[in-house]
Design brief:
The complex is a heterotrimer of chains A (about 1050), B (about 300) and C (about 120).
Chain A (H helix, E strand, L loop, with lengths): L5 H15 L5 H27 L6 E4 L10 E4 L1 H20 L1 H7 L1 H19 L3 H20 L5 H31 L4 H11 L4 H17 L7 H9 L2 H26 L4 H19 L5 H21 L1 H4 L2 H26 L15 H14 L6 H15 L3 H27 L11 H24 L11 H11 L5 H19 L5 H19 L11 H17 L3 H20 L5 H26 L18 H15 L8 H8 L4 H24 L3 E2 L2 E2 H21 L4 H21 L3 H32 L15 H15 L5 H14 L5 H25 L15 H19 L2 H11 L9 E3 L2 E3 L4 E2 L1 H22 L4 E2 L15 H4 L7 H7 L6 H20 L7 H19 L1
Antiparallel strand pairs in A: 1-2, 3-4, 5-6, 6-7
Helix pairs in contact in A: 1-2, 1-5, 2-3, 2-5, 3-5, 3-11, 3-15, 3-19, 5-6, 5-11, 6-7, 6-11, 7-9, 7-10, 7-41, 8-11, 9-11, 10-11, 10-13, 11-13, 11-15, 12-13, 12-18, 12-40, 13-15, 15-16, 15-17, 15-19, 16-18, 16-19, 17-19, 17-25, 18-25, 20-23, 21-22, 22-23, 22-28, 22-31, 23-24, 24-25, ...
Chain B lengths: L6 H30 L9 H11 L4 E2 L2 H20 L18 H21 L3 H32 L4 H7 L8 H4 L1 H14 L24 H26 L6 H21 L5 H22 L1
Chain C lengths: L1 H22 L3 H23 L18 H4 L3 H32 L13
Helix pairs in contact in C: 1-2, 2-4
Classes of the chains: A mainly alpha (about 1050), B mainly alpha (about 300), C mainly alpha (about 120).
């Protein structure tokens, strides 16, 4: 193993040699630089390998022939190896990336780069305070030197601002170090930590000295508000420098602060946490209104480092896990931020919107989303495991306020990062193409690989291998499609369908009857819906990884045994569906609001699980039932709210209409018919384990009942007033989910059975309706219903699907919707509550309004001239609809096939009030129902009367479209004859006040306030170097005041 | 499953009686209404004449499949509603096909004919038809609400959804009728009844003066015949439900005729006195006057 | 007494330097102010290491290696101050280079003119 000192020696030697070279020998100089950096990376990697695989012990590196504290010593341990590797790799890749710039700058520039990297390594390795100071100064000088050599003029002023602040910082640091030395008699960090323990009482002088050191080093982490200079550098420096600055420098500084906290001890932890969380929140808030990509990344960097500082400050609680969490967040941040800065060098213009240039390059888009997912701590990346651990332990230790602040900040961060992703996929690409030089692509490529590898590694480190998400078969299957994306769509579609069906048949014995239904819908249902995707041509890049990610998430959700698996699955299905929804032509804002609501909900679920677990890991889902009574209601509220975000309960529903309506034709049925069930599954699980909970004497399921009733009513009412067919269906889903939630909240046997019936029915008819309407929209080129009309003759199969669909939705016998209503009535009779029924009764008939409108405005009435040549929807879109028609009829005739087993399974929870199944007759405690008899009776009457009409009316003549008379005129223009627009005008007059967009306004105002706050507050950074110095001093004074 | 095939001829017998009763009853009521307006009114067998005339009509056109099927839907709805509910209490002969389902089936089957009719009318492409449907659907959302609440209240009261069981519980004298044991529910339901009988003040759906008879406007000849048959059956089928739920049912045909007539007359009395509401007016009226009664009834039961 | 005076002077210099850096908008004046602060820091460091009645930490004929520990002042701050001075010079040089380049760019030495990066 090479001595770790080589990290420093090699860099110094190489820069010395570089200085001697003739300026013309740029090629050789560059080669020396790369080789040196590669060598340094190799040294670090070798050590890391030795520690991780070889089980080596940390090594002290002595200098000057004396033992510490009489001489400087450095240490190479596992953390040091990892961090120097990170620093050196960033340096190496940046150097590669900087090829042209370095050639232009010549050998001196390369030497400065080497010194900078060396200084960062030194900061990590050294155990001596003064040495630390020296390395920091070296880092500052070399960083400023690098900036001085930048091409951007503006970088000059940024560098000068940096130097001003670093002058202040170094003054503080130096005085602090010397006074600390004076008080303890040593400069060695470890020795000082020991003697500081002994000094604790009454050592005012030492405390002050420590404060000076602490504030100086923390300032290197760019805390709010003392960070204006850093942002200017991020914005103006060459992106490869910014990558180093963000990834390597931050890593080094963080480790320095960590070492310093060793001296300060636990009493300084709250200070670190406080500064960290304030920085995290403020930086994320300020990032919100940014439009410059690099400045935004700068804010994001500042925020991430703040978060890691919080983790360091929570060491008293996190203990052993601190490094797992902190390093997990750190590597996520470093890899992602370096990668993003490198990417930003490929994009020619600096506005976020200009990143749309990436769109033509699937790999770069993939790289971008990998980095964004890493930053936002999504699975399967290291940050996800770290976030999970952090939240689990914070909740276990009762630090809920901090937990809440972290989650709020993380949500804001996800907001601006994913908004940016939306720009990339949806905005008009600029004329300037993306630079495609290989040496610039390689670093990005390495960063992507590193991200996934680290994800695997952190999964492995997080205790038992079972938790490694990258080993979960469904996820592997989904990720595999990334590699297969070059195949034509139909091949991938076949693969996907086969995979889903096969997985179901391999595992179907493992589910209980309830989970079996959900697994059926997710896998087999998903496969049927995917049939429609055969209609797509070409390669359909990105569709299958996203769709399979969503399916994988749903499958893993059903199979989850403990809270970790459940939450991971939840996040996976959220991201997958987000990508799917984002594919729609105009879905950019809707996909974003979907993602934000979903992530917000996910965070609530995360917090709920963490509070429930009280630090226990793994925490089985079934243990939710044994949560302490003082916590249980809160856990219930968090989890229920989280799940209700997914089912779009009223108030949290505003994302749904846009997301479902703007999605592609075959995506809408997936996200509506299938995905919504994930939320219901969550609620099922919640209620099965926790049952009824009371908070301040209020029965929470009673509250759910009210929410559900209003969701059903308002969802239906809003659907009535839509002109857009897909939006109408989307609002209808809100209402239907309200019904299902209502059934669940009834907390009795039949209520749950009814909810399940809605799960099945809604899957079938909503998938079918979305496909029919999607097919119609595809053919007519519009979704506005009043622009259609009279399509029944041209698209008869679509019409039949819609007809069957609306009969089923409305609950009219003899189709399966009626079964749902029948169970509903029986369920409410057994319930303790009566008042919420009033609302839900009102909601029922409202469904007729929008359903009639749907079928009338599209298929009946007057055919428009421009649509006379419209053809039936494509075969592959019609085929699944016909399958659904068959399914619906089968389910209407013999619901027992599916429901009977669940009915007896529900006896475990509610032994009373089940159904009796005798032959085809179904009996409850109150009434009876025989679906087959109903079907036969209705069919016989109908057929007899039809035959009679055919007989007496056999001479009926088919007439043309305008063969009607009204107001004594024969109409000739379909536009003025087709009564469709604003179809329910009188209804709006009567009840329109109920559908004012209160929720939309509320959430809109909230985001506006956040934006405005960020926009106002960022004026703090007025660009003047003296103001930044002043901010620093204010920061010092405030922290000092708080510290006392 | 054992099916008693004799139910078929018995059901047909019920149907036969009700059709004829309905024909005469509606004519009779039209006559009463005319007399209120100091007119002579139609003859008592006018409905039969109309029916024959419709069947005999020589011109017959169709606007398409749904248009063709709508009268079938409509009449199936009426006949089905009638047959899913036992007509005469205690008589297995006239219990019809009620084995197929309970009260909920009857309530939801009401919509079968309405929906089919609305679809067929819409296919005719006639704007008046669509306007009528829009009005009708709007009105029904609130006019059905008091009935739903009343049914819920009654089901809670008797702990059953079986119509036969509900009637059985009201036997033994008129003081056991729901009318007297749960008057609020009956009051709410009767207000809903007004809304569903297509008589003033709630007849804006058909509104003969502005959108000539609304949804059925394009129907003629044998289509119209089927719908006329339904007009005879459907009100009675509906009244049978009300009679069974609230007025103790009927043990034999004379009682049946009497009760149906009297219940029908409620809507007639109101209808000849009040002018027509606009849609939003009737929606508000139901929400303000009828729904609170229903809510009270489910709270107090 | 001497120590306190030196230390007070050092801190005073630091404060003067900071005040100067914050109150002067001219880049060169700011740099001068920082050098004043640097001198103050160095003075403070030396003062910390000073012990009354001892001699400089130089081993020569008068101070033998054997009893040096009891006779000389703390050598560490003395050594450190040398490093600090070197670093200070480096930083000052760099700042001057910056000032030069900034002047080249805008023909101005006013710090308030270089605010194109902000918010």
């Amino acid at each position: 193993m090479p001595n770790a000192l080589y990290l420093i020696v090699a860099a110094l030697a190489a820069s010395f040699v570089l200085g001697l070279l003739s300026p013309k020998r740029c090629g050789i100089a560059y080669a020396i630089t790369l080789v040196t950096l590669a060598f340094m990376a190799w040294v670090s990697a070798g050590w890391l390998w030795a520690f991780v695989v070889g089980g080596a012990q940390p090594v002290e590196i002595l200098t000057a022939g004396a033992l510490p504290p009489y001489a400087i010593n450095l240490r190479m341990g596992r953390a040091e190896a990892a961090m120097t590797l990170l620093i050196n790799l960033t340096g190496l890749l940046s150097a590669l990336y900087l090829k042209e710039s370095l050639f232009k700058l010549g050998h001196r520039g390369m030497a400065v780069l080497l010194v900078a990297i060396m200084a960062f390594c030194g900061i990590v390795l050294t155990r001596d305070l003064f040495n630390l100071f020296v390395f920091f100064e070296l880092a500052a000088i070399s960083t400023a030197g690098l900036i001085l050599l930048s091409e951007d003029d503006r970088a000059l002023s940024a560098g000068f601002k940096y130097l001003i602040v670093s002058q202040f910082v170094s003054t503080f640091l130096l005085i602090g170090i010397l006074f600390a030395y004076h008080a303890t008699g040593t400069l060695n960090i470890d020795t000082m930590a020991t003697s500081a323990r002994l000094l604790q009482v009454g050592a005012q002088g030492f405390t002050l000295a420590f404060f000076l050191m602490f504030i100086a080093l923390v300032t290197e982490l760019k805390p709010f508000p003392a960070n204006g200079w850093a942002l200017d550098i991020y914005e103006s420096a060459h992106p490869a420098y910014s990558a180093i600055f963000s990834a390597a420098a931050a890593t080094a500084s963080l480790y320095a602060v960590d070492k310093l906290l060793l001296i300060g001890g636990a009493s300084w932890y709250p200070m670190a946490s406080g500064i960290g969380i304030l920085t995290f929140l403020a930086a994320n808030l300020f990032a919100l209104p940014q439009s410059n990509d690099r400045r935004l990344l700068g804010y994001s960097s500042v925020a991430q480092i703040g978060l890691i500082l919080v983790v360091l400050g929570q060491r008293d609680l996190l203990g052993e896990s601190t490094s797992f969490i902190a390093i997990g967040l750190l590597v996520s941040h470093a890899v992602a931020k370096a990668g993003l800065y490198w990417l930003s060098g490929l994009v020619q213009k600096r506005n976020l919107i200009d990143w749309a240039a990436l769109r033509g390059h699937p790999f770069l888009v993939f790289a971008f989303i990998t980095f964004v997912a890493m930053l936002t701590s999504l699975p399967p990346f290291p940050g996800f495991y770290a976030k999970w651990e952090l939240v689990r332990m914070l909740a276990g230790g009762g630090r809920l306020a901090l937990l809440a602040l972290i989650l709020v900040g993380a949500l804001i961060e996800a907001g601006y990062l994913f908004r940016w992703f939306g720009y990339i996929l949806k905005r008009e690409p600029p004329t300037e193409a993306v630079s495609g030089e290989v040496h610039k692509l390689v670093p990005v490529f390495v960063a992507v690989l590193a991200g996934w590898a680290l994800g695997y590694l952190w999964g492995d480190l997080s205790g038992t291998g079972r938790h490694n998400l990258l080993l979960a078969l469904p996820l592997v299957f989904a990720v595999g499609f990334l590699l297969l994306d070059w195949l034509p769509a139909w091949v991938k579609n076949t693969l996907a369908i086969t995979g889903m069906v096969a997985f179901f048949f391999l595992t179907y014995t493992e589910y209980d009857p309830l989970r079996l239904i959900f697994a059926l819908i997710f896998l087999i249902g998903g496969a049927i819906t995917l049939l429609a995707s055969y209609d797509a041509h070409g390669r359909r890049i990105g569709f299958y990884p996203a769709a399979m990610l969503m399916v994988a998430g749903m499958v893993m959700l059903v199979r989850a045994k403990d809270s970790f698996e459940f939450f991971a699955a939840w996040e996976l299905l959220t991201i997958g569906s987000y990508f799917l929804i984002l594919r729609g032509k105009h879905s950019e804002p809707h996909a974003l609001s979907y993602l934000l609501f979903s992530l917000g909900g996910a965070f609530l679920i995360l917090a709920g699980f963490a509070i429930a677990a009280q630090g226990v890991a793994p925490f089985p889902i079934s243990a939710l039932g044994q949560v302490a009574p003082s916590l249980a209601p809160w856990v219930f509220v968090l989890l229920a709210t989280g799940f209700m975000t997914k089912t779009a309960a009223i108030g949290l529903h505003i994302w749904l209409p846009g997301a479902h309506a703007e999605a592609e034709t075959d995506v809408s049925p997936m996200v509506s018919g299938i995905l919504l069930k994930a939320g219901l599954f969550g609620l099922f699980v919640l209620l099965m384990t926790m049952g009824k909970q009371q908070l301040y004497g209020i029965e929470l399921t009673h509250v759910l009942l009210w929410i559900a009733a209003f969701t059903a009513l308002l969802g239906n009412l809003m659907a009535v007033f839509q002109e857009d067919a897909k939006r109408l269906l989307a609002y209808s889903s809100i209402g239907q989910m309200g019904y299902a939630l209502f059934g669940l909240a009834l907390m009795n046997h039949l209520g749950w059975l009814m909810a399940l019936m809605f799960v099945i029915n809604h899957y079938i008819y909503k998938s079918m309706l979305f496909l029919s309407v999607g097919g119609v929209a595809k053919r007519t080129g519009t979704r506005e219903m009043y622009r259609m009309g009279g399509l029944i003759r041209l698209m008869p199969l679509s019409f039949i699907a819609v007809l069957i669909g609306i009969i089923a939705v409305s609950g009219v016998p003899p189709l399966s919707g009626f079964g749902g209503r029948w169970i509903f009535y029986n369920a409410i009779l057994a319930s303790d509550y009566r008042m919420p029924m009033v609302i839900i009764f009102l909601a029922g008939p409202v469904a007729f309004l929008y359903l009639f409108r749907l079928i009338h405005s599209i298929f009946l009435g007057q055919l428009k001239d421009e649509l006379r040549r419209v053809k039936e929807a494509p075969f592959w879109i019609v085929l699944p609809q016909m399958l659904y028609v068959g399914l619906l009829l089968a389910f209407a005739l013999v619901p027992g096939l599916v429901l009977r087993r669940v009915d007896s399974y529900l006896n475990l929870f509610f032994p009373e009030g089940g159904l009796h199944w005798e032959g085809f007759e179904i009996t409850s405690d109150y009434g009876y129902w025989n679906p087959v008899a109903i079907m036969i009776v209705v069919a016989v009457i109908f057929v007899s009367l039809f035959a009679w009409l055919l007989f007496v009316n056999r001479r009926a003549q088919k007439v043309k479209q305008f063969n009607i008379v009204f107001s004594a005129e024969r109409p000739y223009r379909p536009e003025t004859t087709h009564f469709a627009w604003n179809f329910f005008a009188p209804y709006r007059k009567a009840l329109g006040f109920l559908v004012q967009p209160y929720a939309t306004n509320f959430w809109g105002t909230l985001t506006d306030i956040l934006h405005t706050a960020g926009d106002l507050a960022r004026r703090l950074y007025d660009g003047n170097g003296q103001s930044y110095a002043f901010h620093f001093l204010v920061f010092v004074v405030v922290v000092f005041g708080m510290g006392l | 499953m054992q099916f008693d095939w004799m139910k078929i001829p018995y059901s047909l017998l019920t149907l036969f009686i009700v059709v004829n009763f309905g024909m005469i009853l509606t004519a009779f009521i039209a006559k009463i209404a005319a007399r209120v307006g100091r007119r002579n009114g139609i003859r008592i067998w006018q409905n039969y004449a109309d029916l024959i005339k419709s069947y005999g009509s020589r011109s017959s056109i169709t606007h398409g499949a749904m248009f063709y099927l709508a009268p079938v839907f409509r009449l199936t709805g009426g006949v089905g509603l009638l047959l899913f509910v036992p007509t005469i209490y205690g008589s297995s002969m006239f219990s019809n096909l009620s084995f197929a389902g309970d009260l909920i089936l009857a309530l939801y089957f009401v919509f079968f004919g309405t929906l089919g009719m609305a679809l067929g009318a819409a296919e005719s492409g006639h704007p008046h038809a669509a306007i009528g449907v829009s009005r009708g659907l709007s009105q029904v959302t609130t006019s059905e609400l008091p009935l739903a609440l009343a049914v819920y209240s009654v089901a809670l009261q008797y702990h059953t959804l079986s119509v036969t069981a509900i009637v059985a519980a009201q036997q033994g004298g008129f003081e056991h009728w729901t009318l007297f044991t749960n008057p609020l529910a009956v009051a709410a339901a009767m207000l809903a009844f007004l809304g569903s009988m297509m008589r003033p003040p709630f007849d804006v759906v058909l509104a003969p003066q502005e959108i000539p008879i609304g949804p059925p406007t394009e129907y003629h000849s044998s289509y119209l015949a089927l719908m006329q048959t339904n007009r005879a059956i459907y009100p009675i089928a509906k009244i049978v439900v009300y009679m069974n739920l609230f007025f103790g049912g009927a043990g034999n045909w004379p009682v049946f005729f009497l009760k149906v007539f009297l219940i029908y007359m409620v809507s007639v009395f109101v209808g000849v006195v009040f002018p027509r509401f606009r849609v939003e007016q009737s929606i508000r009226w139901f929400l303000i006057w009828a729904v609170p009664l229903g809510i009270l009834s489910i709270m107090l039961v | 007494m001497m120590i306190h005076l030196a230390m007070a002077t050092g801190f005073l210099l630091i404060l003067i330097g900071f005040y100067g850096a914050l109150s002067n908008r001219n880049l060169l004046r700011m740099i001068v102010a920082f050098t004043i602060a640097d001198s103050g820091v160095n003075l403070v460091i030396v003062a910390i290491g000073y012990m009354p009645g001892r001699t400089a930490p130089i081993l020569d004929a008068t101070v033998k290696a054997g009893d040096a520990a009891a006779r000389v002042i703390d050598p560490v701050p003395q050594a450190l101050v040398l490093t600090a001075i070197v670093i200070g010079v480096g930083v000052t040089a760099l700042m001057l280079a910056y000032a030069y380049k900034l002047y080249e760019k805008k023909r101005s030495l006013d710090i308030a003119k270089f605010t194109e990066l902000r918010g």
